[in-house]
Amino acid sequence: MPGSVAYRGLEPSWRYAHMINPTERLHWRRSRDCTGGTCVEVATVGDEVLIRDSKNLDIAPLAFTRAEWEAFVAGVKAGDFGLE
């Protein structure tokens, strides 16, 4: 999003709260493997990727740049986090 560089280093949820129009309808996606309502949901807005906990919708989502999100996903796929 324009101006997002100014928010680098700040709490991701703070960036979200001040950059996204609260009335904007977002398309949230979750894994097909998600069961029991304990899921991570992902939405995109411009060049930002938003992450939220499906059971805590009152908490502002975390916001990451597309580059940050792609680096995270690549790390997960490469096994960098020891998730088995």
UniProtKB/TrEMBL annotation:
Pfam families given in the database record:
DUF397
Q: Note the InterPro entries from the entry.
A: DUF397
- Report domain DUF397 positions: 26-77
Q: Write the protein's name.
A: DUF397 domain-containing protein
Its source organism is Actinoplanes missouriensis (strain ATCC 14538 / DSM 43046 / CBS 188.64 / JCM 3121 / NBRC 102363 / NCIMB 12654 / NRRL B-3342 / UNCC 431)
